[in-house]
Amino acid sequence: QVRLVESGGGLVTPGGSLRLSCAASGAWVSLAPMGWYRQYPGEQRELVAEITAEGKTIRYADSVKDRFTISRDRATRTVYLQMDKLKPEDTAVYYCNADLTRIGKTGIYWGQGTQVTVSS
Q1: Using CB atoms within 10 A as the burial measure, which of 30, 64, 77, 91 is most buried?
Q2: 3-state secondary structure of 62
Q3: What is the DSSP code (8-state) at residue 111?
Q4: Measured between alpha carbons, how far apart are the two ends of the chain, in Å?
């Protein structure tokens, strides 16, 4: 059973920074791609950033390139999202994701979500 636990959300003023963390546990998760998604009220979740198990392939949504950085610590099974130069439009619930189907296993897993609010 894979479990993803997020932390690090909160309220920040425009231009500020936050770092989200996602602690992962369970079989195979250390071999799977992991990512961060966000969801606005009434909309579907959208990809923010994704990183492969080895960290060799990373992709970002255009809206966060050059402002957000995803990283992964394999030893602690933790994925981070460093968010800099935050804008009000970054306000959303952020979810951690692990997709085991991409390594031939069963399951796409989500964390419980963490609220990020960017406001003056």
Answers
A1: 64
A2: coil
A3: -
A4: 40
**Chain segment 51-65, per-residue pLDDT in tens:** 999 988 999 999 999
Q: Which two tokens stand for residue 59?
A: 């992709």
Q: Compute CA 29 distance to the chain's CA centroid, rounded to the nearest angstrom.
A: 14
**16: three-class secondary structure by DSSP:** coil
Please determine, for residue 1, whether its predicted confidence score (pLDDT) is greater than 90.
Answer: no
Phi/psi-derived region of residue 79, left when phi > 0, alpha when psi is between -120 and 50, beta in every other case: beta
Contact 35, 51 (CB under 8 A): yes
Rounded-to-integer distance, Cα 90 and Cα 116, Å: 7
Mean pLDDT of 77-100: 97
Close Cβ partners of 102 (under 8 Å, ≥ 6 residues apart)? 32, 33
Of 36, 31, 29, 28, the closest CA to residue 7 belongs to 36
Retrieve residue 40's tokens.
């606005």
Alpha carbon distance 44, 40 (integer Å): 7
